[in-house]
Amino acid sequence: MVKKRIGVYxxxxxxxxxxxxxxxxxxxxxxxxLVLAVAVNDGKGPLFSLEERVAMVEFELPAVMERTGVFxxxxxxxxxxxxxARDQGAGTIVRGLRAISDFEYEFQMAGMNKRLTxxxxxxxxxxxxxxxxxxxxxxxxxxxxxxDIRGFVTPNVREKLLERFSEDS
Length: 169
Known about the structure:
The chain is α/β, with parallel strands linked by helices.
């Protein structure tokens, strides 16, 4: 019997961007089941609540699952990532890299995670060239200042961002 390859792609997803969706779709090439782990991460001061972020991510997944044939689920988490991954039966942590500046932090984290849980591998996926510059932080800044964010997020996420910014003004 072939063992099912389960991967965990963790993030704050505040909000989920086209860059995240690119990594998610590409991750389906290396796993049979992908768990999107939405971090509580109150330290980052998210724009959206955990429930809102989970709902936005869940909204985007049916189209990806239909295209790829891979089951993807969304789960919030607030504990140590490696404990969460072990609880999911994961053998892989998926991390996206946009630029060299991301690498040093991710490399250190991967080393610590490997020491904590040697049986789980971290896999780095480089963002495609059309998504290398997209970050949730920049999308929020551009959107808040009435910039055009259509190329960076899906229509649903754009609508949620615009609603949130109109509430804040």
